[in-house]
Structure formats: structure tokens, C-alpha cells
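Submission sheet (multi-component)
Chains listed below:
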Amino acid sequence: MNNPLDLSWMAWTWPTVAFFCFIVLSIACMAIWEKMRPGGAPRRGILGIDTTRGDRLFISYLGSGFIHLAWLGLLGTPLWGAVVVSLLFAMAVFKWV
Amino acid sequence: MNKISNQRAWWLVVPVVVLVAFNALIPLMTVVNYSVQETFGNNLFFWHGVGWFEQVLTSERFHASLLRQLAFTGMILIIEVPLGIAVALCMPRKGPWVSVCLVLMALPLLIPWNVVGAMWNIFALPDIGLLGRMINGLGIDYNFTQQPVAAWSTTVLMDVWHWTSLVVLLTYAGLCSIPDAYYQAARIDGASSWSVFRYIQLPKLKRVLTIAILLRFMDSFMIYTEPFVLTGGGPGNTTTFLSIDLVKIALGQFDLGPAAAMSLIYFLMVLLVCWVFYTAMMRNEEQ
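Outcome: structure written.
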């Protein structure tokens, strides 16, 4: 019988493990932040919509995904530029959205 | 009085977390893993980086199916939303016909998607189908298996037949929830039926219509079964929408890497639209 814990069918690679670890870690950091300053810091930013810290993180992720795709489609590899733009985008979202 | 803080109820969420992990998160993680690798079967994978994403993003085939998908979604929204509102406005609000109309409207929604595809396939066949024979009998050359325009119009017509009812039922529910006082005030002011629609009904329907547009957008953007059964994506590739193209790449050609990359791009687009509509709905609710 196959080992039920054999996850080779999921075809893991170190970069994808790092990617998911980053997501889990960022969510864990948000949980700690929420524990330290409860309430989610709701506010109405430049988009005119009410957002909490969680919403801002989601917008940052979604925006980063599209920034990477746009970079790849228009400029190709390497993607370091897209990473920098995404970080700047996330900072802007957390500051103004 | 001090409020007792007890967070143990969160444990009740565990079953749904496990369920979502098994049916959504783990498959999604696997797709992410596939999207950066090449495989020739036998569970052997080779690192390919973001090559598949680059290939999909610059491929004419992907652009064409995305364009077809957007055109289809736009078309059915332009037809179904006004038509649904019009039918809902014509439906009676009182009396025995209410139930009859509601059941008639609900019927298309109860039919499984593959059955709808098969029904319309037979219905529209130019030699034996009722619709096909009728159109040809009128002197119009119609064959949805060979003519792109005919294939498109049949696919759109099938979707309109299947899903306009959803818009009708949602709009009807919205119309029924408008208090009579608004209509009485409009009558006193001598408002025309257009003014009643424009200044009373339409603003009150804003929320249900947002939900209807969201549901129709998402469903049509991810449509697969009905056009696949009706046209199989043809003639040629003329009705090959994103999901049909994706299945062709993943299962027809067994190109798991490009298919996974395409799935993730598709997923991001759906996620963006979901977020936009969710935000719009929340804003409506606040107002």
C-alpha cells in the first residue's frame, strides 16, 4: 500500500514551498498584529471603500499577482523588478487604501 | 458587567476548514506546483520556472479564447439583464398566476447543464431539429455545426434561455420587496410608469441586480458544459471559450504545466472580478 503521507503527487518544489510559507507567515503576522492592536484598523481610503488590514493584505496579494503577470507578459524575465513594484504597491495600499 | 470572552466556538469551524483544505487548497497548491514544472507522466517533474506563464501570456491562442470569453459574457449580460428586468416587470404580483409564472421561470434553472446542451444540440440541428429546420424553412441558411455566426447565436440563445430566469426571479423578489407606499406617492404625484421605474424600482433593485450581474458574470465567465455539449468549441475554434481551451490543453494534450499556468491566470481574473463585485455589493448595503 502507498504511504498516505507520500506527497510526491503534489510535485512540491522549494520555490513553491517558499511561496506558500511566505503567504502563511504573512497571515500569521497579521494575526499577531491583530492581537496587539485589535479591531482591524478600519478606515476609508483613497478608493472610497471601507477596508481593514486583512482587506489591504488581500488587495496587495491580488495586485501583486497582476503586477507579476503584466511584467512577465510585457517585459519577460527576470521578475525582480515586479517584486520591487509589488512591494511598493503593497506599501502604498497599507498607507493610503 | 464584565463580558466573558470565550473563543472556543471557533473549534466548530474546523470541519469546514478541513473540507475546504481538501477540496480547494490542496488542489490549488498542486496546480501552483505543476505551473512551474514540466512533466512527461510517471510522476516525474522537471523545473521550468515561470516559462509556462510567459508562454500562456504571450500566446495568441490564449488571447483569442480570452477575447471570445469576454465577448460571450458581455453579450449574454447585455441581453439577459434588460430582458430579465422586462419579464419580471410583466409578471403579476398577486393572484393565482404568480405561482404559475414562478414555476415556469424556475424550470430552465432545474435542468442539468449537460442536458441543456444536448437539448439545444438536437433542437438546433439543421436537418432534424425543430429550430434548425424552421430557420432553414424560412430560407435562411443555418447550420450551427459549420457556420461560426450560427454557432455563436445558438450558444448565446441557449444561455439566454437557460439563465435569464435567474435574473427574472431575483428582480421579481426585489420588486416584491418595494413597499406600496412608494407607488402610492408616485400615483399622487402623477408619475408616469417610466418615472416609477427610473426613480423607484431601479434604485430599489440596485442590490439584487448587482447580485444578478455578479452571478451571471461569474457563471458565464466559467461556462464549460453547455457550449462543449452544443458545439464542442467549434466550428474550428470559434466557440472555444477559456474553460474549453483549458480542458483541451490539460486533458486533450496532457500539457499539465501550461494548463496549470493558464488555470492560475484564469483564477486571478475570477478573483479580481469577485472582489470588485463583493466590494460594490458591500457599498450598496451600506447605502
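Remark: Chain B touches chain A through 27 residues (CB under 8 Å).
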